[in-house]
Amino acid sequence: MAFRRGVGVDLGTSTVLVYVKGKGIVLNEPSVVAFDKSSKRILAVGEEAKSMIGRTPGDIVAVRPMKEGVIADYEITEKMLKYFLRKVLGRFSPVRPNIMVCIPSGATDVEKRAVLEAAMRVGAKRAFLIEEPMAAAIGAGVNISEARGSMVIDIGGGTTDIAVISLGGIVVSESLKVAGNNMDEAIFKYVKNKFNLIIGEQTAEIIKKEIGSAIGDEGKEMDLRGRDLMTGLPKSIKITSKMVSEAISGAIKRITDGVKMVLERTPAELSADIIDRGIVMTGGGSLLHGLDRLISEATGIATYVADDPLTCVVKGTGMALDVIDSLHGGILSYSYKR
Questions:
Q1: How do residues 11-32 score in pLDDT, each as one tens digit?
Q2: Domain residue spans in the chain?
Q3: pTM score
């Protein structure tokens, strides 16, 4: 049966998105919380909290409670989730929603239970989990019920989830703890080592988005400002897309190696299907210039980015509630009813 009051949550390392049945995506905010260290009082959540990163006084801390796709700080995550759901549903909503939360395919039972309990404590009537690559496939319009193989690569902020799907289940999968945030960190370290320049987390992300490239062939460049490591004074340099490609090459190689590893473990019949249908990429990391081409060259299989890749996971998470009775074969990792 389809649930009348359904909420899908993409509880990501970098961003939280919420999908409400009948309304679509109603929230898209950074998964960042700012709080007072002494009192533990929450001061800001989402966009407002992200703007505080690197700019707070000593007694205020801005943190990401999710790390590599799983809960790193249970208390802060629960408060963040409660804040977002109240913002979406209203503080005094009389109807408890059924909540589907997506998780990385490599999440442990302990991590699954933690996510479920957080969803229940914020007011869910029933809580369910769905693995990220399955949600991404549904949101990208892949027909998951067919007896044919489909391959999905979802590159988020904390994890890259790779899966081969057939007959409504995940046949082979791999969850890599390397994704967009690792690329940002690699850019930060590259700039520090090459130019003796300290930049912020948000600056590294902007560099990746504006001139980042998996193949370094764009010839783009941008002015970059930061703090000189030697003098402690502000300093300005130029950085090119080729430099960014060099900086993130390690993370890119781990992703392409992971894709090849999943293909090596895929049954021959499904491999033939994937060759015919191609590989679908979703998530913010899929937008990195040239990454689809690089994966295609590495595997010999046509690779393309889904329409609106940033929202595929949350759309698929919400849509899964409408066909919940037909989901099987590993789509639902857990369900919990109180």
A1: 888 889 999 988 889 999 998 9
A2: 6-30+66-135+313-337, 144-178+254-308, 180-247
A3: 0.87
